[in-house]
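Figure 2 data, in text form.
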Amino acid sequence: MLGGFLGAGKTTAIARLARHFVSQGRKVGLVTNDQAYGLVDTQSLRAQGFQVGEVTGACFCCKFNDLVATAGQLAAEDQPDVIIAEPVGSCTDLVATVIEPLRQLYGEQYEIAPMAVLLKPDHGRKILADEQGIGFSPKAAYIFLKQLEEADVVVINKLDQLDAEARERLLQLTRQRFPDKEVLAVSARQGEGFAELIAALERGEPQRTRTPDVDYDVYAEGEAELGWLNAAVRLRTAAGEFDVDELLMELLRHLERSFSEVSAEPAHLKALADAAGATAIANLVSADSGVELSLASGARAAAAEVTVNARVAIDPETLADQVGKAVARLAEQHGLEAEVSDLQSFRPGRPMPTHRMPLGQSHSPAR
């Protein structure tokens, strides 16, 4: 299981790990996870040719039985040698609620790898340095830090976006805060440092003696500060064709400006456009990072199906309104017909784990 905060680059890292295992002659199954339905991650990974199961409607900890069933279905249909699971980016306490239950209840079926957690540089530097104005409240930052605290391996991602000074500063901050952790630095996009990550994952499950204490009141309030939106958008033109990549980027730029106007920090905004089998993906992972085209389609088309996943520190009603207005502006500027459907907009509910088996603590339910 590869964890990390929203926008840390988990999907890109999982795809690179999967390609590595495939190149070694191993079959790979993937499991994605989200609070809602209609996932960019699932579509993206399937477009790359991977077998992907989904656990939707809540995080792995609250849908533990669904996770086991999904992994079992992958095992029955495709017989993978390796299953890589991507938990919700706002989820923590995964060792006590997912890994330990898997080990104790299904240890004969699965060999469980170390828990790797990707560190997102954009917010990581600010949170680890206790900077003011990080865009998230202390309660949301609490989740970020608890994710790192429970990691067996902390993995600073996106080295390709950091200069040497910023890289060294982030490594220093991470090691100061978590001196007992193995800390690696990688670029999931370019592959730098991945040999060390793969070696860490293949060492076998570590002998843990304790899992972190987690205050579920703070955890729940931190998650609930994020507005969550998934939607499908159909774009069409009756006059010629449009550049799919540029249109997708422009949609996210409209949203970036809208969030800035209301001082709302994006945790992760991602959109996937499918146009006649060609796929484009664009991302925005913080207010400071700018919109990025992570997968170019190179396509021109008269119609495209766009999936939007947005996690933003704003109330869900305002988030839905901002997305609707951005789509309308895009359509008006380019003379497009636009239809928004399957829109889900909400705040995540309080985490209620199926099991909680903490190490070095009393086996009490999460409260």
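Caption note: Residues 220 and 350 are 5 Å apart (CA to CA).
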